Amino acid sequence: HQFYNTWDIAPFLRQGPNAIAIHVYYQGFNNNMWVSGDLRMGAIAEAAIRLRSGKRMAIRTDKTWRCAVSRAWPDGRIVTTNGYDTQVLENIDSRLLDHGWREPAFNDSTWSAPSAVPVSRKDYTFVPQLIPPLEFSVLRPVRIKKVAPDAWQLDFGREITGQFGMTVPGRDGHVVEIRHAEEMNPDG
After folding, report:
1. 152, 146 in Cβ contact below 8 A?
2. How many CB atoms lie within 10 A of CB 5?
3. 51-73 b/e with 16+ CB inside 10 Å = b?
4. Neighbours of 43 (CB within 10 A)
5. pLDDT tens-digit readout, 86-100
6. What are phi and psi of 130, to 5 degrees?
7. In terms of CB atoms within 10 Å, which end of the chain has fewer, N or C?
8. Residue closest to 78 by CA, chosen among 34, 31, 28, 128
9. Parallel, antiparallel, or unpaired: how do β-strands 46-50 and 56-60 relate?
10. Which pTM was predicted?
Protein backbone atom coordinates (compact mmCIF):
# COMPACT_ATOMS: atom_id res chain seq x y z
CA HIS A 1 0.00 0.00 0.00
CA GLN A 2 0.94 3.65 -0.30
CA PHE A 3 -0.09 6.23 2.29
CA TYR A 4 -1.86 9.46 1.39
CA ASN A 5 -2.65 12.64 3.34
CA THR A 6 -5.69 14.89 3.17
CA TRP A 7 -5.52 18.67 3.63
CA ASP A 8 -8.08 21.45 3.43
CA ILE A 9 -6.72 23.86 0.81
CA ALA A 10 -9.71 26.24 0.92
CA PRO A 11 -7.90 28.79 3.15
CA PHE A 12 -5.16 29.10 0.50
CA LEU A 13 -7.44 29.69 -2.50
CA ARG A 14 -8.38 33.19 -3.56
CA GLN A 15 -10.94 34.59 -5.95
CA GLY A 16 -9.66 34.56 -9.53
CA PRO A 17 -6.85 32.44 -10.96
CA ASN A 18 -5.04 30.10 -8.58
CA ALA A 19 -2.06 27.78 -9.01
CA ILE A 20 -1.81 24.38 -7.40
CA ALA A 21 1.89 23.56 -7.26
CA ILE A 22 3.75 20.60 -5.77
CA HIS A 23 7.42 20.47 -4.83
CA VAL A 24 8.53 16.82 -4.97
CA TYR A 25 11.77 16.38 -3.09
CA TYR A 26 14.11 13.51 -3.95
CA GLN A 27 17.61 13.48 -2.49
CA GLY A 28 19.14 11.60 -5.41
CA PHE A 29 19.90 8.35 -3.64
CA ASN A 30 17.97 5.35 -2.40
CA ASN A 31 18.03 4.82 1.36
CA ASN A 32 14.60 3.19 1.84
CA MET A 33 13.85 5.73 4.58
CA TRP A 34 12.09 8.54 2.68
CA VAL A 35 12.00 7.25 -0.86
CA SER A 36 10.78 4.16 -2.60
CA GLY A 37 13.22 1.27 -2.46
CA ASP A 38 12.08 0.23 -5.94
CA LEU A 39 12.78 3.70 -7.40
CA ARG A 40 9.08 4.31 -8.12
CA MET A 41 8.83 7.80 -6.66
CA GLY A 42 6.52 10.58 -7.73
CA ALA A 43 3.45 12.55 -6.79
CA ILE A 44 -0.26 12.07 -7.26
CA ALA A 45 -2.77 14.68 -6.12
CA GLU A 46 -6.48 15.28 -6.36
CA ALA A 47 -8.54 18.27 -5.23
CA ALA A 48 -12.29 17.95 -4.70
CA ILE A 49 -13.88 21.38 -5.08
CA ARG A 50 -17.46 22.42 -4.36
CA LEU A 51 -18.38 25.62 -6.19
CA ARG A 52 -20.79 28.23 -4.80
CA SER A 53 -23.40 26.89 -7.21
CA GLY A 54 -23.20 23.55 -5.41
CA LYS A 55 -21.59 21.88 -8.41
CA ARG A 56 -18.60 19.64 -7.64
CA MET A 57 -15.40 19.65 -9.61
CA ALA A 58 -12.19 17.59 -9.37
CA ILE A 59 -8.65 18.58 -10.29
CA ARG A 60 -6.22 15.66 -10.64
CA THR A 61 -2.56 15.37 -11.52
CA ASP A 62 -2.30 13.99 -15.05
CA LYS A 63 -0.28 14.48 -18.23
CA THR A 64 -1.61 18.06 -18.61
CA TRP A 65 0.46 19.14 -15.60
CA ARG A 66 3.98 20.49 -16.19
CA CYS A 67 7.17 19.58 -14.35
CA ALA A 68 10.86 20.43 -14.24
CA VAL A 69 13.91 19.35 -12.28
CA SER A 70 15.22 22.36 -10.42
CA ARG A 71 18.57 23.66 -11.69
CA ALA A 72 19.33 25.15 -8.25
CA TRP A 73 20.83 21.88 -6.98
CA PRO A 74 24.05 20.60 -8.57
CA ASP A 75 23.26 18.00 -11.26
CA GLY A 76 19.57 18.33 -10.30
CA ARG A 77 20.11 16.18 -7.23
CA ILE A 78 21.61 16.24 -3.77
CA VAL A 79 24.50 13.85 -3.32
CA THR A 80 26.34 14.76 -0.12
CA THR A 81 25.33 13.14 3.17
CA ASN A 82 26.51 13.03 6.79
CA GLY A 83 25.83 10.81 9.75
CA TYR A 84 24.40 7.44 8.76
CA ASP A 85 23.71 8.64 5.22
CA THR A 86 20.49 10.19 6.47
CA GLN A 87 21.58 13.83 6.88
CA VAL A 88 21.42 15.44 3.46
CA LEU A 89 23.73 18.41 2.93
CA GLU A 90 22.10 20.76 0.46
CA ASN A 91 24.07 22.95 -1.88
CA ILE A 92 21.56 25.36 -3.43
CA ASP A 93 22.25 28.20 -5.85
CA SER A 94 19.22 30.44 -5.25
CA ARG A 95 19.94 32.36 -8.44
CA LEU A 96 18.88 29.24 -10.39
CA LEU A 97 15.50 28.76 -8.68
CA ASP A 98 12.43 29.22 -10.89
CA HIS A 99 11.15 32.24 -9.00
CA GLY A 100 7.37 32.59 -9.12
CA TRP A 101 6.72 28.94 -10.09
CA ARG A 102 3.86 28.74 -7.59
CA GLU A 103 2.01 31.72 -9.09
CA PRO A 104 -0.80 31.47 -11.68
CA ALA A 105 1.02 33.71 -14.18
CA PHE A 106 4.24 31.64 -14.18
CA ASN A 107 5.33 30.65 -17.69
CA ASP A 108 5.93 26.89 -17.61
CA SER A 109 6.18 26.50 -21.40
CA THR A 110 9.76 25.18 -21.15
CA TRP A 111 8.72 22.55 -18.60
CA SER A 112 7.85 19.02 -19.71
CA ALA A 113 4.84 16.79 -19.18
CA PRO A 114 5.25 14.33 -16.30
CA SER A 115 5.67 10.65 -17.04
CA ALA A 116 3.01 8.39 -15.61
CA VAL A 117 3.19 4.84 -14.36
CA PRO A 118 0.99 2.73 -16.63
CA VAL A 119 -2.18 1.51 -14.93
CA SER A 120 -1.03 -2.08 -15.48
CA ARG A 121 1.85 -1.40 -13.03
CA LYS A 122 -0.47 -0.12 -10.30
CA ASP A 123 0.17 -2.90 -7.82
CA TYR A 124 -0.63 -1.00 -4.64
CA THR A 125 -3.64 0.37 -2.78
CA PHE A 126 -3.92 3.88 -1.34
CA VAL A 127 -4.68 4.02 2.38
CA PRO A 128 -4.90 7.05 4.72
CA GLN A 129 -1.63 7.76 6.52
CA LEU A 130 -1.97 6.60 10.14
CA ILE A 131 0.36 9.22 11.61
CA PRO A 132 -0.82 12.84 11.35
CA PRO A 133 1.13 15.05 8.89
CA LEU A 134 3.88 17.23 10.29
CA GLU A 135 2.72 20.44 11.89
CA PHE A 136 4.62 23.64 11.35
CA SER A 137 5.27 26.35 13.90
CA VAL A 138 7.91 29.02 14.29
CA LEU A 139 10.44 28.49 17.05
CA ARG A 140 12.91 31.27 17.77
CA PRO A 141 16.38 30.73 19.30
CA VAL A 142 16.73 31.19 23.06
CA ARG A 143 20.24 32.60 22.55
CA ILE A 144 22.15 34.13 19.64
CA LYS A 145 25.91 34.48 20.07
CA LYS A 146 28.42 36.01 17.65
CA VAL A 147 31.33 33.54 17.51
CA ALA A 148 33.43 35.13 14.72
CA PRO A 149 33.28 38.29 12.59
CA ASP A 150 30.89 36.65 10.10
CA ALA A 151 29.54 33.74 12.17
CA TRP A 152 26.77 33.39 14.71
CA GLN A 153 25.60 30.53 16.90
CA LEU A 154 21.84 30.13 17.37
CA ASP A 155 20.84 28.02 20.36
CA PHE A 156 17.27 26.70 20.41
CA GLY A 157 17.67 25.38 23.96
CA ARG A 158 16.82 21.78 23.15
CA GLU A 159 17.10 19.18 20.45
CA ILE A 160 14.36 19.66 17.89
CA THR A 161 13.41 18.37 14.47
CA GLY A 162 12.84 21.20 12.08
CA GLN A 163 13.67 23.17 9.03
CA PHE A 164 15.80 26.25 9.39
CA GLY A 165 14.76 29.45 7.67
CA MET A 166 16.12 32.97 7.58
CA THR A 167 16.27 36.02 5.37
CA VAL A 168 19.67 37.49 4.57
CA PRO A 169 20.57 40.46 2.38
CA GLY A 170 23.15 39.69 -0.25
CA ARG A 171 24.37 39.95 -3.81
CA ASP A 172 24.81 37.36 -6.56
CA GLY A 173 27.52 34.93 -5.58
CA HIS A 174 27.30 35.45 -1.80
CA VAL A 175 27.45 32.12 0.03
CA VAL A 176 25.51 31.32 3.21
CA GLU A 177 26.73 28.22 5.05
CA ILE A 178 24.43 26.70 7.67
CA ARG A 179 25.62 23.92 9.96
CA HIS A 180 23.39 22.03 12.38
CA ALA A 181 24.43 20.18 15.54
CA GLU A 182 22.50 18.08 18.02
CA GLU A 183 24.83 18.31 20.99
CA MET A 184 26.55 21.18 22.78
CA ASN A 185 30.32 20.96 23.02
CA PRO A 186 31.75 21.27 26.57
CA ASP A 187 33.04 24.76 25.69
CA GLY A 188 29.50 25.89 24.76
Report:
1. yes
2. 10
3. eeeeeeeeeebeeebeeeeeeeb
4. 12
5. 666 777 888 888 999
6. -75, -35
7. N
8. 28
9. antiparallel
10. 0.65
